[in-house]
Amino acid sequence: MKSKTLKILKKAMEDKVAVGAFNTSNMEVTQAIIMAANNLKKSCIIQTTVSTMEYTFDTIGELVKSNVKKLAPNTEIGFHLDHGHSFHEITKAIDLGVDSVMIDASRLTLEENIAITKKVVEYAHPRGVAVQAELGRVPYLGREKLDIDWNEIMTDPNEAKRLVDETGTDALAVGIGNAHGFFREKSEPDWERLKAINALLPDNPLILHGASDWEGEKVKKAVELGINAFNIDTDIRIAFCSAVCKMTGDQHCEVSDPRKILKVAREETQKAVEKKIQMFLGKE
Ligand code: G3H
Ligand code: 13P
Ligand code: ZN
Fold it and tell me: What's the CATH number of domain 4-234, 3.30.230.10, 3.20.20.70, 3.40.50.720, 2.60.40.2470?
């Protein structure tokens, strides 16, 4: 399998370490991730989402690939679709050039999850693209109720084994009390659960989503127990937006998505350019 992302994850497994998998949504964030990896001479994964594919009018693939080539030709950098939810989204991302896709069918029943993950694997593998599945749910800040019954949504190790065996997925995103965003996570991750999943799936990289607020001993222990990649989005979005707010003297920065700022900037710039074009044609 020629997938660079899978190669990076397998190497992390062998070395008993983990890599960062960072979400990008524009040129500056993409370059920041690439330059960080290149500067440290460490591999990493860049992730797009369907929202970002839409936001960039499907140019994110070319943007990531050209910047990796230009800025870090000698650093291993994978390119992955984060949280694909349908077969159509998966094929579209593969057409845009990702070398790994996530099919997140974690909100479906196990049977449905197995069926769609298998279909994705059958499509992706012959094209040299790796697959990450998810079992158990990793909740989202602001999008889901806060009184979560963790036992109900965390990954069941035996079901995880079944999902991997029956689908041939390469990697697995696990729920062990983690959550997206700066969130009221489970006070202590379910380490025994992670240990059990890893024992049943010794050859499959395990991914921890919602890692923005994971640090120190928690990260160390997660790696010891089998996590090979940490997904980070919120933390770097905030770094970007805080820097913009600081520049503009905004003391109470409430924006935490670069696209919210840049979309408006793009629209206003487009209006300004249209006005000039019309003016030069004598059509004010
Ligand atoms: O886990 C998923 C991402 O944090 C959500 O990303 O806003 O680009 O869809 P998005
Ligand atoms: P955070 O937003 O918590 O960093 O999670 C990112 C993530 O899991 C992307 O898939
Ligand atoms: Zn995620």
Answer: 3.20.20.70
**Known catalytic residue: 82?**
yes
pLDDT digits (tens, 9 = 90+) for 230-254: 999 999 999 999 999 999 998 888 9
CA torsion, points 48, 52, 57, 61, in degrees to nearest 10?
-10
User: What is the atom index within ligand 1 of the atom nearest the CA of 210?
Assistant: 1
Ligand 3 centroid from CA 114, angstroms: 19
CA 88 to ligand 3 centroid distance, Å: 19
Q: What burial class does residue 244 get, using C-beta atoms within 10 Å of its C-beta: 0-12 exposed, 13-18 middle, 19+ buried? A: middle
The pTM of the full predicted model, rounded to 2 decimals, is 0.96
Is the minimum distance from the CB of 20 to ligand 2 under 6 angstroms?
Answer: no
